[in-house]
Design a protein that fits this description.
The protein contains 4 helices and 8 strands. Strands 1, 2, 3, 4, 5, 6, 7 and 8 form an 8-stranded antiparallel beta sheet that branches. A hairpin with a 3-residue loop joins strand 3 and strand 4. The longest helix has 8 residues. The protein is globular, with a radius of gyration of 16 Å. The structure holds a DNA duplex (13 and 13 nucleotides).
DNA sequence: ATGTCGATTTGCT
DNA sequence: GCAAATCGACATA
């Protein structure tokens, strides 16, 4: 391995993010790798759980009814950037904006299987063991990777936060679709099966 | 100006 | 199993 080259794998191309079908992207993101180089440390893992937020019709989305505020503005941008927001006043939640400008689609990343920079993740999470809680849960994985709200709007093909295809293929039959989490207030919309998980993957939630 | 509540996690009972 | 933590977005006044 040459210095400077590291083991870099192909970053996901812009076309991946620009598809109009956010549900399909939510499934395709399973098995992809989310990697950061923040605070001088490399960290990353395989995406094992996602949740899609689909356009202005989606009651569970921050952009429901095309609500556009300082916080949600990036959801309306062209696909391929990060949407990071503060939840419950303390957790930063990381989303991938998809589709085209003006249509607010996003995919929340809910869990990672830790792969790169496990030491850095353990330090940031103050954990002494590598278990499911290290990067499982949307607030936990951002903490593990060093992602914060100031990274909202960041290009996902840059040098700080990016996604890679390392050749892992997750066939449809190995994808579980279920209701989204924590959005009961959205009524019937919350029950749409827009949360995706890799079947029987120990790094995702058991239920 | 004030009040409510959230795409959650953690620690204590 | 439950509630605290903690802040900003939003609704209501």
């Amino acid at each position: 391995m040459q210095p400077g080259k590291k083991h870099s794998m192909p970053k996901l191309p812009l076309a991946f993010y620009r598809s109009p079908d956010v549900l399909r992207i939510g499934r395709q993101l399973l098995g992809k790798f989310l990697v950061t180089r923040l605070d001088g440390r490399l960290a990353g893992g395989m995406i094992v759980e996602t949740e899609a937020y689909a356009g202005p019709e989606d009651r569970a989305s921050h952009a429901y009814g095309n609500r556009r505020t300082a916080r949600t503005d990036v959801m309306f941008w062209n696909g391929g950037v990060a949407y990071v927001y503060l939840c419950y006043g303390l957790h930063c939640l990381f989303n991938i904006v998809t589709g085209r400008e003006g249509v607010p689609h996003a995919v929340l990343i809910r869990a990672l299987q830790p792969v790169d920079g496990v030491e850095a993740m353990m330090q940031r999470r103050r954990k002494t063991r590598v278990d499911r809680t290290l990067a499982g849960g949307p607030g936990s994985l951002t903490r593990a990777l060093g992602i914060r709200v100031e990274h909202s709007g960041m290009d996902l093909r840059g040098a700080r936060i990016w996604l890679e295809d390392r050749g892992v293929r997750v066939p449809l039959r190995n994808i579980l679709a279920g209701p989204r989490v924590g959005v009961e207030y959205a009524g019937a919309h919350a029950r749409r099966p827009w949360r995706f998980r890799i079947r029987a993957n120990p790094w995702t939630s058991p239920a």
